[in-house]
Amino acid sequence: MNGKNKMKQGHHLLTALALALSMAAVNPAGAADQSQEDVAGHRLSLHGFGTLGLARSDDDDAQFVRDLSQPSGLTSRWSTKVDSMIGLQAGYRFNDKLEGVLQVVSRYHSEGNFSPEVSWAFLRYDPDPTASVRIGRLGTEFYMLADSRLVGYANLTVRPPPDYFGPLVLSYIDGIDGAKSVPVGNGLLRGKLFTGVSPEKMSLSDGLYWNMSGSLVVGGHLDYLTGPWQIRIGQTRVRFDKDLPINEYTGLDITGQVPEMSVVGKWTRYDSLGVVYDNSPFQLQLMLSRIDQGSAAFEDSRAGYAIASYRTGNVTPFLGYSRTKSDANHFNSTPPLEQATAAFLSASTHSDQHTWFLGARWDLRKDLDLKAQVDWVRGSPGSVFPFRAETPSWDGHMTVFSLALDYVF
Amino acid sequence: MLPRPLLLLLAALLLSPLAQADPGLVLVVNARSGVDRLTLDDAVNIFMGRYRQLPSGLAALPIDQPENQPEKARFYRLLVHKDLAEINAYWARLIFSGKTSPPHQAKSSAEILDLLARQPGAIAYLERSQVDSRFRIVLELER
């Protein structure tokens, strides 16, 4: 099956889900058993989340982005672009085992605008209270907390640390996942497996896109929750279906002459470890990851971050540190022009930097918070992958000032 | 050694002034649920949506006190040392990633008692004075 067909299949699935949800909304009485209806309350639920963000950097030699789906980022002028977003979610509960969810998000993304995207659209079936299966469009959970990284109100910092979450450009898949929980000792062991096909594209610099549709995603993770601790190990693999547009960009036959630059059919592996210690008012998050690229078009990288916070009344100050570093690829093939070009392109995915960030979250109401944060990025001049539009005088150092108002309803 | 009922009476007498100063809350289930005791971990798992199966195998149906009642804020302080803004942030993450739903939000105390009496899997926190023979106390939450 080629990628186009897979994508079409995804569209059909979404259409069917949207139809099921709207029909359910029109006929909310259904054939429900009375007792469940009492407890479930409203069968149709509507929720929303949003962030109004305002940020700037002190450096016009590179643009700071929240993640690599964004084609351009912050300059030294205040902008609402990178963090502002709004999401709407409708849920419909058919019975105590079956639920449908549709979520639409508008944020600045690969199209270079805020055009809305269907980020979740799935049917969820819970055969019993310890297990669940979801089918449809699902948010990706490559790393712990990754599937809620747009929900500012659920997170402590203005944005999830870009050193760690920035390279995650696949935010959803059309597929299936299953989760199961089992009590073990005093805690709970939870496992999840997922697979699906990406319908997305990634924005590269200079207005170029990489069509990632048809990429196969397979992954899973294991959590252990006990007392204030949550520990997770996870692995996700992605097999890309289409090459980067490097031949079109350079006018050379790079993927033909330097085959290791081709990504098609090769597996990229994301390994991660996450630990959350949440003993209110003190909280600690620690995450580590390793991306093992199947192709030399990208450099292999490692990243990690730690955030500590302490809540005092309605204000929660936090301090964080994140780090990312990638390893240069070496090319031995001929001809020299293609080889040099491949080396240049691969080096454009280099990252070697750390960031200290300090800020506070202020809970104004139970559905509204205000955050202020400063990020000090310190890296080598070759650390260009996390940024957009670097100039030759980019020195790897940048300070970012951010404000955010997050709400849920 | 004093007989057990006497010891209990003595303890109750000794503790009663304290209990009146801060009565705490009790976690109760329907008397037909087949559940006698729950641990604090069980209660956290049920109310935080981690694991909603009662030891008897029934699906647990947790119920929250009305938003404006002081019991709700007190319960989450006792359970996980969190205030309601933190609890809301916690649920925002789970709701918007399509995971579990928060406990059923009751509109009144009467609704809670009614659900507790009719639903075998229902579980809710109450003032001790609200507990009657239809319900069983499975956990006491004291400061």
What is the gist of this entry?
The complex is a heterodimer of chains A (409) and B (143). Chain A is mainly beta. Chain A has a single domain, classed as Porin (Beta Barrel).
- CATH homologous superfamily assignment of chain A: Porin
- Just give the CATH class of chain A: Mainly Beta
Report the mean per-residue pLDDT of chain A as an integer. 90
Provide the CATH superfamily of chain B: Periplasmic binding protein-like II
Major β-sheet annotation of chain A: 16 strands, antiparallel, barrel
End-to-end C-alpha gap of chain B: 29 Å
Throw out a few tags for this protein:
heterodimer; A: 409 residues; mainly beta; Porin; 16-stranded antiparallel beta barrel; two-stranded antiparallel sheet; 6 helices; 20 strands; disordered N terminus; B: 143 residues; alpha/beta; D-Maltodextrin-Binding Protein, domain 2; five-stranded mixed β-sheet; 5 helices; 5 strands; globular
Walk me through what this model shows.
- The complex is a heterodimer of chains A (409) and B (143).
- Chain A has a single domain, classed as Porin, CATH 2.40.160.10.
- Chain A is built from six helices and 20 strands.
- Chain A has helices at 3-26, 34-40, 162-165, 246-250, 254-257, 336-347; strands spanning 44-57, 63-64, 85-93, 98-107, 117-128, 131-139, 172-184, 187-197, 201-203, 209-211, 216-226, 229-239, 267-279, 282-292, 300-310, 315-327, 352-365, 368-379, 387-388, 397-408.
- Chain A is globular, with a radius of gyration of 22 Å.
- The two termini of chain A are 42 Å apart.
- Chain B has a five-stranded mixed β-sheet, sandwiched between helices.
- By secondary structure, chain B is of the alpha/beta class.
- Residues 13-21 of chain B have low confidence and may be disordered.
- The interface between A and B is large, with 49 and 30 residues.
Please give the structural blueprint:
The complex is a heterodimer of chains A (409) and B (143).
Chain A: H1 3-26, H2 34-40, E1 44-57, E2 63-64, E3 85-93, E4 98-107, E5 117-128, E6 131-139, H3 162-165, E7 172-184, E8 187-197, E9 201-203, E10 209-211, E11 216-226, E12 229-239, H4 246-250, H5 254-257, E13 267-279, E14 282-292, E15 300-310, E16 315-327, H6 336-347, E17 352-365, E18 368-379, E19 387-388, E20 397-408
Chain B: H1 4-21, E1 25-30, H2 40-47, E2 61-64, H3 70-80, H4 84-95, E3 104-105, H5 109-118, E4 122-126, E5 135-141
Parallel strand pairs in B: 2-3, 2-4
Antiparallel strand pairs in B: 1-4, 1-5
